[in-house]
Predict the structure.
Amino acid sequence: MADHALLGIDLGAGGLKVSAVSLAGTLLGEASEPLETSIPAFGWAEQDPESWWEALLTALPRALAAAGLRAEAVRGIAVSGGAHIPVLLDAADRVIRPAILWSDQRSAAEARELHERAGAAIIATSLNRVNPTWTLAMLLWLKRHEPRSAERARKLMLSKDYLRFRLTGSWETDYSDVIGALMADHRTRAWSPELCRLIDWPLETLPPVVEPAAVVGGLTPAAAAALSLRPGTPVICGSNDTTVEFFGIGATRPGMAAIKLATAGVLFLATEGPVVKPPISCYPHVMPGMYYLATGTNSCASAHRWLRDRMFLAPGGEGSAAFAEMDRLAATVPAGADGLLFHPYLQGERAPYWDPLLRADFIGLTMQHGRAHFARALYEGIAFSIRDLLDTAKGFGLEFGATRLIGGGSRSLTWRQIIADVTGLAIEKPENGDASFGAALLAGIGIGAFASPEDAVERCVRVVGRAEPNAERHRLYGELFAVYKDAQAALAPLSHRLHGLVAR
């Protein structure tokens, strides 16, 4: 039984995960709890913040049990969560409405208007181009379509900050999440009055900004009792999930890259100082003075789960077994899935198209295609979508070397090799690639268990696998990618027509 441990909590779109980590970086135990997303209309995505707390009440005790930890062994706790996700509280600290997720596309009109009205100022101030992913556009939508919700707001929190508020009762955020709201001035590392004025958002509703590794309080007696932990256990601010997980895989030098196969597919690149390449996103890194670029496709593991549930999961069946069967079948099909291609636009698309009306499709079907081909085509289609991101980034002059693969999809040897073959990048798998692991390292920095971020990475991060691209398959995938791109361009107008028919 470990004498000392760190807890990392990550609030993802598909579930909440808790990891217990030793001071040597060993994963002692973990547990997760799924989360339900409400889709009230096409392109919308919301979650009830109360469900986040309920998921934590379930997952954290199970993680402690899996690790064999006593409450007194937990030295510190840090939280990460999806960026951009606003939670509004009223004067009594009650949640006003469901939280709008980063994948939600309802604020497309507001984003266009903000860009046309003040796009250059927004980019110069907060490093990024406005689109429906960013909190700034979401809040303008709320002011117009749910004015009473906006009027009642007395506190604005980002997703991880609300969950941490339930632990400590304190109200803070970090600089990376402030940039993620698109409401910060990167020169002052604080909220921007100018950007807030664009949407008439009151500054007094915005939390103080602290460092990600800052200790912001201790567990309240009520939270400690609910979670079977010690009151006063130090709680660290944390940061958004992409910032935390990119740090947690050891990407601490400029030029290091990562690909994330989770609810969304994300491509990362570490940089020295801010590199502004809209619409690629730029966020502050945990490492002092460093930033990182991130660009993402909306549907990755969410598309994986969608296909599993509709084609591979028998009634009453077990989800992980169905995923394993998909993986086994995908490995039996040759590269290219015998001409079956998949565009993974199940929730519209972010980068590189920023088109909420795009629809997913399988094209090239023949009588010879079966379930194994659909599994392979899904893996390849998401890899093509990531290559779309990669080629766009390279078009800006950005260079990528060996790249670390993270997220649930990284466990698949087949998918890992497909990513290498499609992108042409050497793919490394870190031993621990979850944001909850990175959050635990932040907790260690915060309580002084690690001397610095570099010390935490040196002591705790290890690479356990590598996939080199196969030259012959890379050439084949290059030809298929050209078809993928041509088909995307040809089908986009049809997606718009279909949307118009359905909306009518």
The two ends are 62 Å apart (CA to CA). The chain has 16 helices and 23 strands. The domain at 5-249 is CATH 3.30.420.40 (Nucleotidyltransferase; domain 5).
